[in-house]
Design goal:
seven-stranded mixed sheet, 13 helices, 19 strands
């Protein structure tokens, strides 16, 4: 049964640099990279290629030693030009010099009418060997799903409420058939519902409203209303022992295309956002694209290039590689400068959640767009219980006590306080409003790893 969820807690960051719904032509980068670090919980990749090998889009590059039949495959065709390693020879990047024309591995393709007749076993086999399975994420833990599990439900959030987030309805124009095929494939893996959650305060795209085999839920509220973790909490909460799967809308279309056209195609429109971009819109890129062509379209030289959004994205540098799950690139200025008595001067130009001394942001109203940099305007210090976490967390958990339980490695309290329901993006706002400047997202991931291993 469809549900309507109205959230009141949260905070919208209205930043300058939104992407217009238009295509920006950017030269395709020469190199791409698949990074094991993009996949939470992937600790022991076993390489299947070496430098000098030639691959196609969909060719296997490595696998997790504990799950050998899930293949992590190349997003493009070309030559393996570098395998970058870190400490203890940890694999950081598998770089591919891309062909001018991308060649794809060929997988079995099906007509739209045949997709309903595909067995669960055949669908699973094609997803695992093509790389399509990587789009399915498991809660708890936020890791690539375990094929042996039977999730009680599958969640797809059709909107992103993060700062400067991409418009999925625009990105997926023309992919209606693939999106429906992706849903039909996912439906084979659960006896429960496939939840398709839409923003009831925005115009709903026909692409989402006309989908079949889904339960459509209406969500409204400030960020993080678009986070699938928040939606799960209110629609089908996770208790100990439960498993729920989540898939990004673009991942749904990738899965659908894998079956309708028989290719693993990770290309998508990526939003180019941020105050330092000369032109903001969307450009077509494959997963793992190098940003060197994008950085030529940015103003200035001292910028932070973020794969994703400013709250939960990853700083990757002007020559870095787009994250596997990122559909957005954000460019903002580095904040290396110091401001004399900046903490005491009244200002209406510093974006802040707090109505504290000098922070007069709230006087601007809700429509003012802020240009932000990477300054945190403070240093890490002991936890201060201010109540701010609870005001931006629209879930029935106590975030302050959860973070303290993680730091104390108290397993019982971590479970009781809801660690199974959250991943980094769900607590990113807590990190933004934290007056103690603690790395909240890192702390949460450490707790998740403790619970997972314990």
């Amino acid at each position: 049964m469809s549900q309507t969820i109205k959230l009141k807690k949260g905070f919208d960051l209205n930043l300058a640099g939104k992407a217009e719904n238009k295509i920006i032509e950017v030269p395709q980068p020469d190199t791409y990279a698949l990074k094991p670090t993009d996949f939470a919980g992937l600790s022991r990749p076993k390489l299947l290629v070496k430098e000098g090998d030639n691959v196609k889009a969909g060719s296997p590059l490595f696998f997790e030693r504990n799950e050998e039949d899930i293949l992590y495959t190349s997003p493009v065709s070309g030559e393996i030009v570098e395998i970058k390693r870190g400490e203890k020879r940890k694999v950081l990047e598998v770089k591919i010099l891309a062909d001018k024309e991308i060649e794809f591995e060929k997988f079995k393709k099906y007509s739209s009418s045949d997709i309903n007749g595909i067995s669960k076993e055949d669908a699973l086999d094609q997803l695992k060997k093509s790389g399509g399975w990587l789009n399915i994420i498991q809660r708890p833990y936020g890791i690539v799903a375990n094929p042996a599990d039977s999730p009680k439900s599958i969640f797809i959030s059709t909107f992103d409420s993060s700062p400067l987030a991409p418009d999925y309805a625009y990105i997926l124009q023309g992919h209606e058939q693939n999106f429906q095929a992706g849903i039909d494939i996912l439906k084979k893996f659960t006896a429960g519902n496939v939840h398709l959650n839409i923003n009831s305060k925005a115009e709903v795209s026909q692409l989402f409203s006309q989908m079949k085999n889904v339960e459509v839920n209406n969500i409204t509220g400030p960020h993080p209303a678009g986070n699938v973790g928040v939606q799960i909490h209110h629609i089908d909460p996770i208790a100990k022992g439960d498993v729920v799967w989540t898939v990004n809308p673009i991942g749904v279309a990738v899965i659908g295309k894998l079956f309708t056209e028989g290719i693993y195609d990770t290309s998508r429109l990526v939003a180019l956002t941020g105050s330092q971009m000369n032109e903001r819109g969307y450009t077509k890129l494959f997963a793992g694209a190098c940003l060197n062509k994008i950085s030529e379209k940015a103003e200035g030289t001292d910028n932070r290039y973020i794969s994703g959004n400013v709250l939960s994205g990853e700083g990757i540098g002007a020559e870095g590689y787009l994250g596997y799950y990122s559909n957005q690139i954000t460019v903002i200025p580095e904040g290396k400068h110091e401001e004399f008595l900046g903490w005491i001067k009244p200002s209406t130009n510093k974006l802040s959640f707090h109505k504290a001394f000098g922070m007069l942001t709230f006087l601007n109203g809700k429509n003012k767009e802020f240009e932000v940099n990477t300054n945190t305007y403070g240093e890490e210090r002991n936890f201060v219980i201010s109540g701010a976490f609870e005001e931006v967390m629209p879930m029935d958990i106590l975030p302050t006590y959860l973070f303290k339980a993680i730091l104390a490695e108290d397993y019982d309290d971590m479970e009781a306080l809801g660690i199974y329901e959250v991943i980094e993006e769900d607590v990113a706002l807590c990190e933004f409003v934290d007056v103690s400047k603690n790395p909240i997202q890192e702390i949460l991931r450490e707790g998740i790893e403790l619970i997972k291993e314990g």
